[in-house]
């Protein structure tokens, strides 16, 4: 999907939910959509400042918080970065990320078996999962072949 088609889809999702998709939020969305892999908030801020010189750290963090809550982006806690979700129409889907420590490539995968196993283990322990992001670090196919 192109960044523009992703933006159109996101605009429709926001309209349906009654969420306010401001110009700054759209700009940050497009910056992420045009990226391959994960990016830190301050790198995004530097890019945003090229468009909006008045942008501050709070600007980027508020936009990222909104985009995360809408399910448009995922925060990768272990590397403090953000990555675009390319199938955000599915609300509250479990997130499993493969993160290459060599090149930084991030692959989002979905395994219903993994999700079911995790939920079964949580149920056994009387735990209710409200939000799930599983991060696995290693080497992607390209870096493994080169090494």
From TrEMBL:
Domain of life: Bacteria
Keywords linked to the UniProt accession: DNA-binding, Repressor, Transcription, Transcription regulation, Zinc
Keyword Cell inner membrane assigned: no
Pfam families in the cross-refs: FUR
The keyword Flavoprotein appears for this protein: no
Family: Belongs to the Fur family.
Protein name per its UniProtKB record: Transcriptional repressor
Species this protein is from: Colwellia echini
Higher taxonomy: Bacteria, Pseudomonadati, Pseudomonadota, Gammaproteobacteria, Alteromonadales
């Amino acid at each position: 999907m192109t960044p523009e088609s992703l933006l159109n889809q996101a605009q429709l999702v926001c309209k349906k939910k009654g969420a306010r998709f401001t110009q700054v939020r759209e700009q940050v969305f497009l910056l992420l959509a045009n990226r391959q892999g994960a990016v830190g908030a301050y790198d995004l801020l530097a890019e945003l400042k090229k468009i909006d010189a008045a942008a501050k750290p709070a600007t980027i963090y508020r936009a990222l918080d909104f985009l995360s809550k809408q399910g448009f982006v995922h925060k990768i806690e272990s590397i403090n970065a953000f990555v675009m979700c390319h199938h955000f129409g599915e609300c509250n889907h479990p997130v499993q990320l493969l993160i290459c420590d060599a090149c930084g490539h991030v692959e989002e995968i979905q395994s219903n078996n993994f999700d079911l196993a995790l939920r079964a283990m949580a149920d056994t322990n009387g735990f209710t999962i409200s939000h799930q992001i599983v991060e696995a670090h290693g080497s992607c196919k390209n870096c493994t072949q080169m090494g």
